[in-house]
Amino acid sequence: MSRPNESSTEANVRAVRLTKWYGRVTALQDVSLHLGPGIWGLLGPNGSGKTTFMRLVAGQLKPALGEVTVCGQRPFANPDALRRIGLCPEADAMYDELTALEFVTTMAELSGFSKKDARDKAAVALEQFGLKDAMDRKVGGYSRGMRQRAKLAQAVVHDPDVLLLDEPLTGTDPSSRHVILDAIKARADAGAVVLFSTHVLPEIEATTDRVLLIARGQLVAQGRVHEIRSLLEEHPHHVRVYTSEPRKLASLIVGVEGIVGIQFAPHGLELMTYDPDATYRVVAEKIVEADLPVDSITSPDASLEALFHYLVERSSHGAGTGADGGVGRARSLMMGRGGAQQAPGPQGTQGAYQGQIAGPGAGAGSGGRA
Amino acid sequence: MKGSNAEAVRVAPSTIKAPGAPGFGQAVGVIFRMQIRRLVRGRKLRLGVIATSRVLFSVVAARYASQRSEVGAERAQELAEDAMKNGLGWGFFKLLVFLLPFLFTSGAIAEEIESRTFAYVSSRPVSRAAIAIGKWAAGAVLSVALLAGSAIVLHLVALATDPAALVEGFPATLKAVLALSLLGVCYSAICLFWGALVPEAAGVVSGLYLGVVEWILGFAPGAMRWVSMNFLGRQLAGQEPGGLLPEMAPVVDAWVAGGILGGMTVLFLFFGVLVVSTSELRMGNA
Predict the structure, then answer these.
(1) Interface test with B, best of A110, A120, A128, A137 (most B CBs within 10 A)
(2) How close A77 gets to chain B, by Cα (Å)?
(3) Which of A37, B97, B98, B263 keeps 20 to 30 A from A90, CA to CA?
(4) What is the predicted ipTM?
(5) Distance in angstroms (rounded) separating the CA atoms of residues A274 and A235
(6) pLDDT digits (tens, 9 = 90+) for A29-56
């Protein structure tokens, strides 16, 4: 690991026991992580600490404890680190007196481009976000969606290594979203770290399956959605079987090892299991053997939304953090190449951060879709 | 359709190539231009121009109203000189020199923090000192331009009927312009400092400081006047001390007054830059 303020060529964000409080309010507590290139979804309820985390990474705030580095350097008031960061803030605030072209050109000049290059780069960035014909109008007269796109244009105009997007799709229409998500993916493909916070979970699911979940100021999970889900052992997986003969199917699978609950539902059956892979296999075999009519088999809690609710619910009961068993294990998830790793603490070890539970691809197939 | 999404061009960046950070001077220049552009297009410059025009109009109207009847040439010159002195004293040294820097600089940092636009500039690879100095320079330049320009216009209009006085009085007017300019620059630094230190109440705190320390103490008896840069500016311009017990007011050499004004400007600017450079500027609360 490079020492702070020793620039790293690979795009990365690293936090070690990062803590921030405002007076007596703890906004972020003991967050340790390492983000490599790619898109990362940052999820959490309102007031959970997402924006504080973004601001710390963007060098807007100083950590109260711990450390955050961007490409190996502390970002607060550090031009060497800031030149590698692009920030699209959450607030719908802009310099309303300026045209979009002036605004983005100014930001490009402040990023180090000459006046002419800045103007050219700004025009390309605005064109990329569909503002070619509106770039000479003052942003004060823009719609919310257009302002959002102008904000994104200024965030990417200098080709940053680390792109921080705080609710970037707010106020945008579906076609704008498509344009924005394409641009985000393009930056990630070019090797940037893209941290993307949103309340709208399908937006994350459409973009990436790598997420960070923050609740009550703490990082409750990070990694790929299905891998995190597979580590939540205290929550049985739900498997939905859409069939017109639920009773017959129930009689066939009662007593099957791993199935801990069976419920009748309007669509058929809902099974609870700690071993979804085995359950899928056994249920499929029984269905074939008995020649039962089945429309589909799905897992409702393989979705990000279900995972989000599990983790937030646990966190609100004071169980989802620190050395907590289930989620603590989820926190210790370590990803492979280009993925996330729990950064070691100052002494190299930290309770819940120890131990590699799952390697790359672990858990794949669990909670899968039939 | 303007801003149509259909016209979006997908440009996939092939490589990451963030440029090097800009130099300090370049950053100050960019911030300065942006701030000037915003001020020129915003309401504040209009307010400043309206206030300046009203002062000019009032002084010129009073000057020519007092000379409606036929008076001798000597009396006419006296009236013109009085109009200049009172116009500069009350209209400029006791009103505009406070108002213009307050308008242009007290919100330079504070309003950006409150409106949350500061994130755009502070997340760029420029030193925060460059941001603060660029914004201060823009406010100071506009203040000085309006103060100096309107003082010269006042001189030309008020003394237009007496070409001899127009020429003879010009050095005194230039001295007043210099003093007003120094005060404008100094007050811009004071407003920037308070705006950065207390962004949520920048206008109130800057206004209180200028009102109490600069305005009221500028007319206080005796040595208390030393704390008021306005008093020193008036001394530099050759204005009469006025206020409470004027005979007790210190007499300050022009070089001393100018030196103190310059020193205070540097001091407030230094602390303003220090606050902007080292503080989170309450962005966590905004």
Answers:
(1) A110
(2) 7
(3) A37
(4) 0.86
(5) 8
(6) 999 999 999 999 998 888 888 999 999 9
